[in-house]
Write a structure and sequence with these properties.
Cofactor (chains A, B): Mg(2+)
Distance between the termini of chain A: 15 Å
CATH topology of chain A: Farnesyl Diphosphate Synthase
Protein name (chains A, B): Probable farnesyl diphosphate synthase
Radius of gyration of chain A: 19 Å
GO molecular function, one term (chains A, B): metal ion binding
Family (chains A, B): Belongs to the FPP/GGPP synthase family.
Largest sheet of chain A: 2 strands, antiparallel
Number of helices of chain A: 15
CATH superfamily of chain A: Farnesyl Diphosphate Synthase
Order of helices and strands of chain A: HHHHEEHHHHHHHHHHH
Oligomer: homodimer
Pfam families (chains A, B): polyprenyl_synt
Amino acid sequence: MTPFEAKLTATAKRTEELLNELLSTDTRPQETARPTHLIEAMHYGALNGGKRLRPFLVVESAAMFGGDREAAFRIGAALECLHSYSLVHDDLPAMDDDKLRRGKPTVHIAFDEATAILAGDALLTYAFDIIAAPETALGDRARIELVLALARAAGVGGMAGGQALDLAAEKRSPDEQGIITLQAMKTGALIRFACEAGAIIASARPEDRMRLRRFGEIVGRAFQLADDLLDLTSDAATLGKAAGKDAARGKGTLVALKGQDWAEAELDRLVEEATDLIAVYGDRAATLIDTARFVAKRKS
Amino acid sequence: MTPFEAKLTATAKRTEELLNELLSTDTRPQETARPTHLIEAMHYGALNGGKRLRPFLVVESAAMFGGDREAAFRIGAALECLHSYSLVHDDLPAMDDDKLRRGKPTVHIAFDEATAILAGDALLTYAFDIIAAPETALGDRARIELVLALARAAGVGGMAGGQALDLAAEKRSPDEQGIITLQAMKTGALIRFACEAGAIIASARPEDRMRLRRFGEIVGRAFQLADDLLDLTSDAATLGKAAGKDAARGKGTLVALKGQDWAEAELDRLVEEATDLIAVYGDRAATLIDTARFVAKRKS
């Protein structure tokens, strides 16, 4: 394990401990009844063994600007709840109809469809609860900017809108620009938010926030491109989900459109662009630069 | 039309104008692509001709404490987006499987199931966007308290949790206390939020906020009890939806458990309790008292 991988693993572990605590079925003083079954489904959907890349980006972006580490972990956990909701709903029969995720039954298979819909709804709602909760020790200004940025990243102009464009793309294939836009919304927006969030947590200057936003956009593109490459070249055992799925559904990807060689060169170019962008922060940018490289070169 | 009904109608009209503007498919400067179909489904789900009782409670609670009227309308619209999301998802085949709402095809019938899931998700997300947006001219403290209160009212300890308990109740009927808890979460929490929101918007004193919260709880109970009575005594033409549906599903209601006479007496008692609670505000409480009475006595 490289030092970078050790760092990523440690953040994933800490994020999961926090999610475990946030999604516990223990009774809270202010509540009259706990819908235990629903919370178990939320816990199942959120603690699914991901790499926790988004929380890592939040924590490392905040660290670069000297932001509060505990607050960053809580924002990371909120983002992971929101990301998990999108996976739970995307897997539903009416959507992608997936029965496995990371080799385990999806939420609507392990529980039932109604519970999966509700668990997704509740995870989405909980993300905003966590940001606004007093336990997330941040100033009101930072909190409200995080709420707004996350709502925009997840809403019609972001992830949900991208998913809608993706459903439409199954009927009519988009062109290159259409695919770029769709992916920037569907997967890019949350990754961009993760990087921008660090700057907000640390109350960084507006130009730093904009630079992190741009960095997040590039990392988001690299993430999706690497994903499309993996979908084409990996087998199910490595991926923990059905491989070649996108191609089988006729979903247009940039890799399908422009080829594997182009995609590999483009990934190198994106890593370089991301590196140049935050080189201005010197040594403090090292972990984020490693992250961009890791995202582009990952094998699963 | 009574003066109260005229007031309610005027607020509904203004709320719908605002929702119409907020859910317009016009391109926004910050967005690269608008998923028009998704926004149309959100618009269809949110502009469904309801009485807009929740926004009315927000606006009138804020007015009682001298809160900003425009801000109250925007918080009312946000709440209505959130309420609409819950209706769109509740109507889904995996949930209540309803094909009609207010005499019109439900969202998954008028569009399709995937679009209905996404439209609900996006309406829920948009509620937090509206609260946090700079256009909702409120201080950061009020905004963050609204985000937190709404997330709690809608989440596992509130509406989503109540819906989960409701699904479980189809398998095993809850007792009287169980029904009260379920209903307080499923329908009560948002109505309570509506009343509490007015106090938050106006930066009212903590004891006023607590009193409005309690007032909202009582109005919420009256709302649900009146609903259960209507389900039992109305026909589909008056309700705009299938009548006797709850009884047919074997869903336990307090009316089924304790009878119609008890329910009518209980409604009188709740109106009295609500009135006594806010009598301390004198004449300024008149509209909210009228609202409690209207909620308890409504015929549709």
